[in-house]
Amino acid sequence: MEKRTVAMDEKKGLRNTRNLILVGVMMAVGVVLRLFAGVIAVGNMHPNFLIATYCLSILVIRPNLKEAAIIGFISGAISQIGTSMAWLGLGSETIGAIAMCLLVMLPMPKLVKPLVCTFLATCVSGFAFVALAAVTYANPMPMAQFISMSMVTLVTAVLNMIIVTVLSIPVNQVLGLGKEK
């Protein structure tokens, strides 16, 4: 008797139910960690767990640009909780998630990808936030405020890249993606 096999197409992005659930769980974790972010602080600056969780989600599930924008927009909507500059996160997180999606598509060594992509995507999101703040809340933005917000962005990017790099290893192993390039 011949064995029957079913060829399954592994869907990337949000078309896969497992991936959709993963993004939802990551966002929930990001919200909870955001509430306790003050505990993990470097010079009164802390990781942005929402950015870290969407970066990790995008790194793992490889959504298309539209799906990445949706992930970023949802993250931006969640970031409205407790923000002093309302609505800026909608734009900055969407831009950051799209940047992460584009960066993940670039060929680079597996061990370097989470570091580089997360650092750059966090910088894109952070500087988009700074630019939107400069245009909407502080026009013109004083140089001291720009420098301060830029430093926060860079420290956050370093913290996020460490978090995503460390977490990408067990997440990939749990999801059976450890052998991926």
Question: Mean of residue pLDDT?
Answer: 87
Helix content class: 55-70%
* CATH architecture descriptor: Orthogonal Bundle
State the separation between the terminal residues, measured CA to CA: 37 Å
Radius of gyration: 17 Å
Largest sheet: none
| Relative strand content | under 5%
CATH-assigned fold name: Arp2/3 complex 21 kDa subunit ARPC3
- Shape descriptor: elongated
Unreliable stretches: none
Tally of discrete structural domains? 1
CATH class: Mainly Alpha
Q: Care to count the β-strands? A: 0
Instruction: Count helical runs.
Output: 6
| Class by SSE composition | mainly alpha
What is the string of SSEs from the N terminus onward? HHHHHH
Strands, helices and their partners?
Elements: H1 17-35, H2 49-61, H3 65-78, H4 88-105, H5 113-136, H6 143-174
Helix pairs in contact: 1-2, 2-3, 2-4, 2-5, 2-6, 3-4, 4-5, 5-6
Describe this entry's structure for a reader.
The chain has 181 residues and is an all-alpha fold. It has one domain (13-174): Arp2/3 complex 21 kDa subunit ARPC3. The chain has 6 helices and no strands. It has helices at 17-35, 49-61, 65-78, 88-105, 113-136, 143-174. Helix 2 packs across helix 5, helix 4 packs antiparallel against helix 5 (113-136) and helix 5 packs antiparallel against helix 6. The longest helix is centred in the last third of the chain and has 32 residues, at 143-174.
Keywords:
mainly alpha, 181 residues, Arp2/3 complex 21 kDa subunit ARPC3, elongated
